[in-house]
Amino acid sequence: MPVTIKALMKENNGLRNQFDALTKELKNLQARIDGKLTKETSRPSPPSSPVDQAEVSKSIEFLGLECDDLNNFSGKISEEISALKANLGVIAEKVDDLAQAIEEFQAYSYGFNVKILGVPECVSNESALQTSNLCVAIFNKMGAEVSLTDIDIAHRVKPRNPSNRPKPIICKFIRRLAREEVMKRRTAIPLVQPREIGLSDAVVLTNAKIVDHLTPSAQELFAAAKSFKEQHQFSYCWTKYGTVYLRRSESSRPLRIKRFSIADLSTLAQEDLE
Question: pTM of the full predicted structure?
């Protein structure tokens, strides 16, 4: 059975959860050991009582040996904990590298797709073939020379938030050149006449859009960037080829926000305050 991206993501998330659990257990162990050592080293001395000098010497010698053993134990435990932390660090890097590789592979696959919003179904329970033909009709009326042979599949998906709006369409192209032909003319979709693509005259396409199909990670980053745009008075926030961009004004340069690093926004916010 071939390994799927979904299966790899599930496995990687499981590894990350195990890593987080082990890290937490290691911290708890460190805290318990530190507490035990503190308790042992701070034990009160027994009350003084008249004893002979030989007994005092034996007691001092015994306490000295006990202290040495305790220090040796503490040193060995610290070394073992440090080694465990180093190993966990290596595992964490591998988990992050795998997550990034999965994201890159997924992003490449999504790069053949477009997402169409605001277009109603041509018939009830629209089939994938009917959806594909609807997409071709829309693209052609926008001025893009696309045929059914350029499309791998087109299908409806559930919206992220339940609403009365039409289900979005994910259209997957076979050729990227065909996809780019559509994206160059995407602003023309509100001008398409519904009756010319087999829809009712009562349908309104003024709010229809064609956008990049973003991976879940890129979608999360895009949402964070849009929030950042509002908070810091930036004028533009958009995506291109799955990458998120911000621009303060028409005359300023676009700022590319890395796909895997929402931390970029924190850095940008700090620079904005300076």
Answer: 0.69
